[in-house]
């Protein structure tokens, strides 16, 4: 009788070990499945974020390209105003400068 009880105890242990292996295997498979799912989700989010940043960058490029024409016009206008100011100053003082130069050229120190 003891041998039957011993055999049945061993059989119960083997059955319990087999069930434990199945539980661990199932848990490992579930864990791997969740990891794959998390990786795919992270890759998808990264791709969306990358696309968002690229679109933002393209918008900035197109905005700055569009503004370059208006910047050129503004700079040309400012440059024209400054040139005209220099011409006005030059015409006002040119006679004084010519007179001063003539004075120094004509004056001979002995």
From TrEMBL:
An annotated GO cellular component: vacuolar proton-transporting V-type ATPase, V1 domain
Key words, A-Z: Coiled coil, Hydrogen ion transport, Ion transport, Transport
Pfam families: V-ATPase_G
One example GO MF annotation: ATP hydrolysis activity
Coiled-coil positions: 32-59
Subunit and interaction comment: V-ATPase is a heteromultimeric enzyme made up of two complexes: the ATP-hydrolytic V1 complex and the proton translocation V0 complex.
PANTHER family documented for this protein: V-TYPE PROTON ATPASE SUBUNIT G3 (PTHR12713:SF27), VACUOLAR ATP SYNTHASE SUBUNIT G (PTHR12713)
Role, per record: Subunit of the V1 complex of vacuolar(H+)-ATPase (V-ATPase), a multisubunit enzyme composed of a peripheral complex (V1) that hydrolyzes ATP and a membrane integral complex (V0) that translocates protons. V-ATPase is responsible for acidifying and maintaining the pH of intracellular compartments and in some cell types, is targeted to the plasma membrane, where it is responsible for acidifying the extracellular environment. Catalytic subunit of the peripheral V1 complex of vacuolar ATPase (V-ATPase). V-ATPase is responsible for acidifying a variety of intracellular compartments in eukaryotic cells.
Family of the protein in this entry: Belongs to the V-ATPase G subunit family.
The name this protein goes by in its record: V-type proton ATPase subunit G
């Amino acid at each position: 009788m003891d041998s039957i009880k011993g055999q049945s105890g061993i059989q119960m242990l083997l059955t319990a070990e087999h069930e434990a292996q199945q539980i661990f295997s199932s848990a490992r498979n579930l864990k791997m499945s969740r990891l794959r799912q998390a990786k795919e989700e992270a890759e998808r989010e990264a791709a969306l974020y990358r696309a968002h940043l690229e679109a933002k960058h393209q918008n900035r490029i197109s905005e700055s390209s569009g503004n370059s024409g208006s910047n050129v016009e503004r700079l040309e206008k400012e440059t024209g105003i400054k040139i005209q100011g220099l011409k006005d100053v030059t015409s006002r003082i040119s006679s004084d400068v010519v007179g001063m130069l003539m004075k120094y050229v004509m004056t001979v120190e002995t």
